[in-house]
Amino acid sequence: MARLGGCWAFLCRCFFQYETPKILLIRSKKVGALNRLVQALILAYVIGYVCVLKKGYQDTDSVLSSVTTKVKGVALTNSSQLGLRVWDVADYVIPPQEESSFFVMTNLIVTMNQTQTRCPELPSSSTNCSSDKDCSAGFVDVRGNGVQTGKCVNFSDSARTCEVFAWCPVETDSEPPNPAVLANAENFTVLIKNSIQYPKFSFGRRNILPDVNTSYLRNCIFDRKRDPHCPIFRLGDIVSEANEDFQSMAVHGGVMGIHIRWDCDLDMPESWCVPKYTFRRLDNKDPDNNVAPGYNFRFAKYYKVADNVETRTLIKGFGIRFDVMVFGKAGKFSVVPTLLNIGAGLALLGLVNVVCDWVVLTFMKKSNLYKEQKYSYVDDYALVSTSHQFHLFL
Amino acid sequence: MARLGGCWAFLCRCFFQYETPKILLIRSKKVGALNRLVQALILAYVIGYVCVLKKGYQDTDSVLSSVTTKVKGVALTNSSQLGLRVWDVADYVIPPQEESSFFVMTNLIVTMNQTQTRCPELPSSSTNCSSDKDCSAGFVDVRGNGVQTGKCVNFSDSARTCEVFAWCPVETDSEPPNPAVLANAENFTVLIKNSIQYPKFSFGRRNILPDVNTSYLRNCIFDRKRDPHCPIFRLGDIVSEANEDFQSMAVHGGVMGIHIRWDCDLDMPESWCVPKYTFRRLDNKDPDNNVAPGYNFRFAKYYKVADNVETRTLIKGFGIRFDVMVFGKAGKFSVVPTLLNIGAGLALLGLVNVVCDWVVLTFMKKSNLYKEQKYSYVDDYALVSTSHQFHLFL
Amino acid sequence: MARLGGCWAFLCRCFFQYETPKILLIRSKKVGALNRLVQALILAYVIGYVCVLKKGYQDTDSVLSSVTTKVKGVALTNSSQLGLRVWDVADYVIPPQEESSFFVMTNLIVTMNQTQTRCPELPSSSTNCSSDKDCSAGFVDVRGNGVQTGKCVNFSDSARTCEVFAWCPVETDSEPPNPAVLANAENFTVLIKNSIQYPKFSFGRRNILPDVNTSYLRNCIFDRKRDPHCPIFRLGDIVSEANEDFQSMAVHGGVMGIHIRWDCDLDMPESWCVPKYTFRRLDNKDPDNNVAPGYNFRFAKYYKVADNVETRTLIKGFGIRFDVMVFGKAGKFSVVPTLLNIGAGLALLGLVNVVCDWVVLTFMKKSNLYKEQKYSYVDDYALVSTSHQFHLFL
Fold first, then answer.
1. Residues 6+ positions from C393 with CB-CB distance below 8 Å
2. Tens of pLDDT along A313-332?
3. Which chains lie within 8 Å of chain C at 3 or more CB pairs, if any?
4. For A237-249, what is the mean pLDDT?
5. Residues making up the binding site of C
6. Residues in A touching B116 (Cβ below 8 Å)
7. Nearest Cβ partner for C90 among A141, A282, A299
8. Pick among B12, B17, B20, B212 to test the C interface (most C CBs inside 10 A)
9. B214 labeled binding residue
10. C168-182: average pLDDT
């Protein structure tokens, strides 16, 4: 019984105890100043940089976004091939809707009334021929327009090429018209509606801000200075803000990035969370180390004429694809990253002792005095009580 | 030789030494209890919150996803303009395939047999005219349908507007039919196939789970309670789960988000990693601070009639765009974040001493006794041995 | 005055002081070796794993990307239904452009000359009938082709099915042709242009590397060994690199992922930042727990024939959708993560003392000697001055 009581008292003693390091307190102007300086530096870093600048006390989330676009505008063209023609949004936006990008055709090469039949291929090193022997029936060139029939026929008065079975006549692979056919696309406008969410914080917002009224929206055009929150953009402005020339870009086409950045500090009022628009050309306009510069693709309109024969109008459409890219980061106070940073900051405060000890025990005149006070020794080599040995050394 | 040996011995001594702080062990119920309490709090935070709740021991990766969709359903409409007509998937899904979204047309305004010619523009403040002087040839209104010819013509018995060169007749800019033409789209179904990957962990999974059999898949319809893993959704259910009314949404169109969340703990059995579906309306249905509410776009079908004249049927299609958004985070045990968190946790344990020392040395009755034991002093000011000075003070 | 001076001196004394823990230095081969070993292990982890392997000193950013694609190739088909026909890019890429994916049709079921009229539905358990009573007028099956008229008509000599109002004749729901109609798509090529950005570091790059010249680009084909940086891919190569068979995939279609990984260490020369291409099949080709295997969708070409009657050609297109997925992470030296990791590393060094103290004070023969030197005691239980008590013990 007494034994048990003793055991219990021992456990109590172990539990109700507190270990605190023994401290040597050096009162010295030099050492103290050094100490406070190093402390101040580390505190300044932890508070200033981690907390204020980098917002290390916040948990972050990245954005989920949905974009819809609507282009408006009409252009008139007059070419020998198509005659006088007006182009509206159903004609020049292809496909009519996409998820977060839109394509506006600015230039085109039209090949009308193609049918499935035989015709001479375009002249090139692999299609030029002088007799049927130069052409092999069934051969398909991956860069050609059709399947060779094995005959050599007149392409023009001067050139003979292999005949192909293809959509004929084949498209003449020439440079696109310059200036661009739909040069007027510069004045088209696009309404971009963007709705974002930060799922971790259940926070949603739209690029049409709550304090903007409807009548303003009907007539505004985005302008970085005067109308920075208007969601309607003139295509020409988008391109010129990216320091590009719309008219020269319109000829061969290209890809423009419309970047919408939503950097939101959710510890601040919600109305501070506004989108920031920037524009950038994404494709490479340099002719060097480039292939197929600009942006174009081919599509066709299919018709059936008399006798049920299918014909098509092939269009090589050059134009500008606008990719709307939404990105950003929301931050909100959270306990985990805060304590992670405080923990790391405290650990850095441990550096104070490392630095100061090194200076104090190495460079100070009285370093021996400090050493004597700071250190006790247990020396296995000498197998004598340390402090005696130490005094003997002195 | 003796010297070298001495030097070597000195280096050995430096290397084979161990610095451990001298500790003052205070055995006191009050102090001990305080100590254990603060320790317990910090340990509870580190273990409970960081490790269990926030899974701070895991490395995370975000999802890479691929989505395919397939809509099914047929709707019958009967209008004076189009007559009796049946609509199938090739008619109402435009474009026929997209990467991770699909559009279902629910309502439409059709303008048939448009050709490139001249006709009166719709009446508006900028197109109303009383004589040719009010119209300027070549003027293009960005919100208009064509290019003004400079003539003022009768739009109706009562109104005169400027004539335009355009696809004529121009679309009458009226409200869409209500109820929606394809109101039956509510019963259409969509099969969503989603395949995800966490590239960092080489982990892939599909939303058709391995334990689901094929015959079930042919007939099931998603239901949050009874069939939560069926990948076939009724469009009406998607909209009503988001607390919206399909029939009123169908009139002007809108954008729905289908969110698929893959939160996977890869330390757990793979079969616990299942997708969670939620639905949300993404566009703004409020008429305030809004412009062009709903979702619609224009597209055309082009025909060639006799004499090679191109005509088109312009369709302003209203409908619901469903954006499939896949997100989520996978976590798996990893050494770096674990040790980062342990390190930060240990540093936080350093807080125990800060708190306890402050309490013990400030508020305890016996604080002077503790101070005396904890601190030694080297005082440059007095230039006397500290311990003597200290004893003198006492 | 003297008081104030004294107060000031006291504050000075507090400010200009430096607390450093008192250290017990144990000089012992065993203890020293243990100490150095644990230190070495922790340092090796911090430096080797966190800094070198995981690059813990870097801030990271994820990629923003823009992709354009251009398919080339021609295929010849010969079927009883369509006759001899050549297919080019405008025929088999649907829609003609997408944001970061492209679809190449490899197989198709064509239903020509559909008009809006009445015809027998395909036989199935819900459409087979023996008399008009079995059919209900107005009934729409979500998996059917049209709206039932209520009549039971002959589907073939042997089968009778309910009549539907639909696009007639309805598509025969048969298996797609095997081998695939456009089997030659294996030889098509695609040019993929990818432009990426790391917005946090204002760093941009293209997959056409600056040191590649234009004439090389015109003729190269991607090959993992010989041409790893050529942006032109043969479709057959993409599929076979993913260990799939193109010809069998072409029959029912499928989804391929083209993964472009941009892992860039921006502390290194920019030219080390190159894209890495991998290919993977994304859809499930197993017939088990699957529904609608492969990838297909329906689209139609609309025609107007004589008398203004609209007809259409319905195409069920099977093919391969290629999803270009761009991902990656850029890292660049940054102060915050570096110090966060150093802080955590230092805190881990604190573990050295925990481990060594435990070993030294528990297992060493001379542990009593060490304890005696390391610890001082203040014992509230005995209510005697600790050092006296301690000396008495000795």
1. none
2. 999 999 999 999 998 889 99
3. A, B
4. 94
5. 70-72, 189, 296-298, 316
6. 84-86
7. A299
8. B20
9. no
10. 89
Place of tokens 């007939």: B219
**Which residue do the tokens 């501070």 mark?**
A272
Q: Do C166 and B16 make contact, defined as CB atoms within 8 angstroms?
A: no
Residues of chain B contacting C287 with CB distance shorter than 8 Å: 214
Q: Which of A126, A128, A124 is nearest to A153 (CA)?
A: A128
User: What are the binding residues of C for ATP?
Assistant: 70-72, 189, 296-298, 316
Q: What percent of chain A has pLDDT over 70?
A: 95
Q: From chain B, pick out residues whose CB is under 8 angstroms from the CB of A39.
A: none
Contact criterion met (CB < 8 Å) for A32 and C23:
no
Please report the number of interchain residue pairs, chain B to chain C, with beta-carbon separation below 8 angstroms: 239
Strand partners, A296: A318
d(CA B276, CA B389): 72
Q: Which residues of C touch A28 (CB under 8 A)?
A: 16-18
**Residue A210 is encoded by which pair of tokens?**
């709550």
Whole-angstrom distance, CA of residue B74 vs CA of residue B183? 11
Query: What is the number of residues in chain C?
Result: 394
Instruction: Look at B376 and A64 and tell me if their CB atoms are within 8 Å.
Output: no
Please name the member of A165, A288, A378 whose beta carbon is closest to the beta carbon of C84: A165
The angle at the Cα of C312, spanning C310 to C316, to the nearest 5 degrees, equals 160
Contact B142 A373 (CB under 8 A): no
Picking from C317, C302, B95, C113, the residue whose alpha carbon sits closest to that of residue A302 is C302
Distance CA B222, CA B235 (A): 10
Decide: B279 and B256 in contact? Cβ < 8 Å: yes
SS3 content of chain A, % helix, strand, coil (to 5): 30, 40, 30
User: B335-363 and B367-374 helices cross at what angle (nearest 10)?
Assistant: 120
Q: What angle do CA B163, B166, B170 make, to 5 degrees?
A: 80
State yes or no: pLDDT of A17 exceeds 70: yes
Query: Which pair of tokens denotes residue C275?
Result: 């894209």
HSE-CB for C43 with a 13 A CA cutoff: 6
**Shortest CA gap C379–chain A (Å):** 9
Residues in A closer than 8 angstroms to B292, CB to CB, are: 70, 191, 193
Which of B377, B320, B383 has its CA nearest to residue B69? B320
User: How distant is the Cα of B184 from the closest Cα of chain A, in angstroms?
Assistant: 23
If you search the block for the tokens 């023609």, which residue do you land on?
A85
Question: Which of A110, A289, A324, A374 to mutate: most C Cβ within 10 Å?
Answer: A289
Contact A19 B21 (CB under 8 A): no
State pTM to two decimals. Answer: 0.86
The residue behind tokens 């079930």 is B216
Query: For residue range B199-238, what is the model confidence (pLDDT) as tens digits?
Result: 889 888 999 888 888 888 888 999 999 999 999 999 999 9
DSSP string, A269-314: -GGG---EEEEEE-S---STT-SS-S-EEEEEEEEEEGGGEEEEEE
Tokens found for residue C382: 């005995």
**SS3 call for C46:** helix
Cβ contacts of B340 on chain C, cutoff 8 Å: 340-341, 344
Contact: C376, A327; criterion CB under 8 Å: no
Torsion, Cα A194 A195 A198 A203, to 10 degrees, reads 140
Mean pLDDT value across residues C150-158: 90
Tokens of C196: 């990426």
Q: Could you report the per-residue pLDDT of B24-48, keeping only the tens digit for each?
A: 888 888 888 888 888 898 888 878 8
> Buried b vs exposed e over C131-162: b needs ≥16 C-beta within 10 Å?
eeebbeeeebbeebbbbbbeebbebeeeebbb
Task: Identify whether the C-beta of residue B289 lies closer than 8 Å to the C-beta of residue A211.
Answer: yes
Tell me which residue of A216, A223, A119 sits closest to A164, measured CA to CA.
A119
Position B290, amino acid: N
